[in-house]
Amino acid sequence: MLEKELISALELRSSLRLFDETDALRVFYGPGESSDAIGSQIAIDIFSDQAWITQWAPIPDKVLKSLVALLQQKLPERCRGIVLMDRSEVASEADSVPLDGEVREGKFVVKEFGIPYLVQMKNTKHPGLFLDHAPLRRWLTRTQKDKRVLNLFSYTGALSVAAGAGGASSVTTLDLSKPTIEWAKENWDQASLIRSKGDFIFGDVFDWLPRLKKKGLEYDTILCDPPSFSRTKTGAFSTGKDLARLHGLILPLLAKNGVLVTSINSENIPERAFLSEVENAARQTGTRLQWLGRVDLPESFPTPLDPKQRYLKGFYLRSV
Question: What does the buried/exposed string (b/e) look like for 287-305 if buried means 16 or more CB atoms within 10 Å of the residue's CB?
Answer without folding.
Answer: bebeeeebbbbbebbeeee
